[in-house]
Write a structure and sequence with these properties.
eight-stranded parallel β-sheet, single chain, about 400 residues, about 20% strand, alpha/beta
């Protein structure tokens, strides 16, 4: 593997260190030491979930250095299994669903019930724990559950956590034909070092590189220790830097809800005078958009023509905020901007907002003209570089305008 400094790492398997007195501060310090740029926080039980709700605002505001993706375990046998997911939905927090056969005492006759519950949840990614441990053979059905779900939910991504552990090659051979199955190697790499299984891990990396993700399983192993162990194994598997980068970052970014949005943002960046991809804090901004904003894409002839990013989570002031709004140069003049703004207004009204605000660069005269013609008005607030504008949704609704104004 070519020697380069790795600038981005996504840890696809992190837990809170619940056995210590100050779990949030301990986790925050661990992440700061590791320098990772993204991660998935997995909450397996009630105690872990309570910690999430306690520190939710800190986590979702990026206090870890990034906004983490979230996974909650599905309490299969509880009548109240949906409550936490409903709260996540109402809080506009994107989430993945974790299924843990050993912790939740799942057997093969539970598969149909699990499927019916997953159909009700708004998660594109489902994680199935597949780490063999303990004498309860009836719960060692992670591989079977992955196959069952992957075949019946082809539009969702199914992640096999720990990649099968001691049965890593068997799990790979049984599931690799299923194109929506991905794997995280958390714990497996470090746990089996020095055993015969270790070479199976190297073989697995070599032949499953395009659907594989790095994970530390912190706090069982430190994040830095896990990164170093993984880097060594990637080198032993003979992967190039670019192939290793997919495992250490890009695949997890795709699997956990950001890949499609990233592609759209980067494809449309030229539509903006100051595109966000050129900023030093691009990753943080992108993760905030993915987790908290609604992304509206407009197409022309089946091609992406532009997009808008709108936040509708200010419940107190009932004011939506458009952070990004742009149409590619080749598609301007076709009234697509008006159609895109119409959709922003529709979403804001549906979410109970009374106004929409935005910031416009003073040098962006075409953008200022468009907002003004649509009905936005400049406020008293401004900076050296920008104007701030607002659109009154109540008046627009009363006028029956249908969100229509002349485009620029």
């Amino acid at each position: 593997m070519t020697e380069k400094i790795r600038k981005r790492v996504f840890d696809a398997h992190i837990h809170f260190p619940i056995k210590c007195d100050i779990p949030y501060e301990v986790l925050k310090n661990e992440i700061k030491k590791s320098g990772i740029t993204g991660g998935l926080l997995i909450f397996n039980g009630r105690e872990e979930k309570e910690i999430f709700w306690k520190y939710k605002d800190y986590l979702m505001n990026g206090e870890l250095g990034f906004i983490p993706r979230i996974a909650f375990v599905l309490d299969v046998h509880s009548d109240r299994w949906k409550e936490d997911f409903d709260i996540l939905d109402n809080s506009k927090i994107c989430y993945s669903v974790k299924i843990h056969p050993r912790i939740s005492d799942i057997k093969m006759n539970d598969f149909e019930s699990i499927l019916s519950k997953l159909v009700e949840l708004n998660s594109e990614t489902i994680i199935v724990d597949n780490w063999l441990f303990g004498p309860r053979i009836e719960n060692h059905i992670g591989t079977e559950l992955v196959i069952y779900l992957a075949e019946r939910l082809p539009d969702r991504k199914i992640v096999m956590a720990h990649a099968g552990g001691v049965r890593i090659l068997e799990s790979m051979l049984l599931t690799r034909p299923l194109v929506n199955v991905y794997y995280d190697l958390s714990e497996t790499c470090s746990y089996f070092k020095g055993t015969s299984v270790y070479m199976d891990v190297i073989h697995f990396i070599k032949y499953t590189r395009n659907r594989l993700m790095f994970g530390s399983d912190y706090p069982d192993f430190s994040i830095n220790h896990s990164i170093k162990a993984m880097e060594k194994e990637l080198d032993m598997a003979g992967l190039s830097y670019e192939e290793a980068d997919k495992i250490m970052y890009a695949t997890a970014e795709l699997v956990y809800g950001g890949g499609v949005i990233r592609k759209i943002v980067e494809e449309c960046d030229g539509a903006f005078i100051e595109g966000i991809t050129r900023r030093d804090d691009y990753e943080s901004i992108l993760q905030k958009m993915i987790n908290n904003a609604q992304i509206i894409v407009i197409k022309c002839d089946e091609k992406v023509a532009g997009y808008a990013s709108i936040y509708v989570n200010d419940i107190k002031l009932k004011r939506a905020y458009i952070s990004m709004f742009g149409i590619k140069k080749d598609y301007q003049g076709k009234k697509l901007g008006t159609l895109l703004m119409d959709k922003c207004c529709e979403i804001a009204v549906k979410e109970g907002m009374k106004a929409i605000s935005c910031e416009v660069l003073k040098i962006n005269q075409p953008g200022y003209g468009f907002y003004q013609s649509y009905g936005f008005r400049k406020t008293k607030k401004e900076t050296e570089k920008s104007f701030f504008m607002t659109y009154n949704l109540i008046n627009a609704k009363e006028q029956g305008s249908g969100w229509r104004n002349d485009d620029k």
